[in-house]
Structure formats: C-alpha cells, structure tokens
Amino acid sequence: MPTNAVTLADEIGDLKPVDSLALSGPLIAVIAACLLTAAVLIVLTVLLARPARRTRSSAPSRGAHSGNASKNVWRTRIDDVVNRHAAGDLDRAEAFAELAAIARQFASSASGRQFESSTLTDLTYLTRTPANRQSLDTLKQTISALYPPEFADDDSFHRQSGEVSVQQAAQWVSNLVERWRF
Q1: 161: in domain
Q2: Which residue has the higher pLDDT, 38 or 24?
C-alpha cells in the first residue's frame, strides 16, 4: 500500500546544506526605496506645514497705513460737522446723523468691513476676536450713544438725549478714531 507521506531525511547523514540565498540585491533595493520614501515624506511635511502664501490682490489697501484711514482726514470731517452746526448750516439731528455716518465710514475704511448700514443690533452680534474686540466695542458704544440724540424727536422721551451737545458727540467720534485698533 503506497503512502502519500514524503520522507525528507531518514538520518542526519542524509541532510545536505543548501547554498545561501542571494537576497542581498533585493534587500538593498527595498532599503533604498524605504529611505527614498521617508525623504519624500519629510520634504512634503515641511512644505505642507508652511502657511500658504497670499497673493497680492488688487483690493484697496485698508487699515492704519492706508490713505483712507488717515486720522487727520477723519478729524477734519468731524470738525467740519461741528463748525457747520455752529454756523447754523446743520440742525442738531442732522449733525448727529452725519457724525454717526462718519463713525461708520471710518470703521468700514479702517477694518475693510462694511458698517455703513449696520444697525446697533448688527454691531452687537459681530464676531469679536482679541484683536478687534476693543475697536468693535468702541464703535458699538459710539453708535449707541449717538442713537438717542439722532432719533429722539421729543427730548422728554429720552432725557439724556437733550443734554448731549453736538460738540460732545463729536468728541465721542474723535475718541473712536483715536482708539481704533484692528
């Protein structure tokens, strides 16, 4: 009865050493490929970890160093409102409306964001960061202080609005211009 079992060696004397496997070439190739892959990954990590370069856009400059944000321009506009009110060319409500518009225009010019049509509620819900918190809070306070005198037809309705002078309101807007940091 034939068996399917294979007998490799019956005795120790039947064992013959096999020649060494020639794996040094493929092993060197695998090591070289791993080193190359590691070098490529390191280069990609360094390149991708850098912040993206911003291309110069044709957008108008803004901020403290732009021509539109020059504090002297804004001071002149504020003084013009006060002088026209003193000369009788502007009534009190018109002066407050112009001062509020100047405050919004300045904030828009200095920040690059649109505040010209922002209501007090809009200003309240703006996202604040540590960098813009002081400026946005000052803008909100200035507009808030200008609202009652600007819209109060009857000073008895809002007692403090009758006590605010155009000169004092102009000082609030000047304070906004001076303290702006964005």
Answers
A1: yes
A2: 38
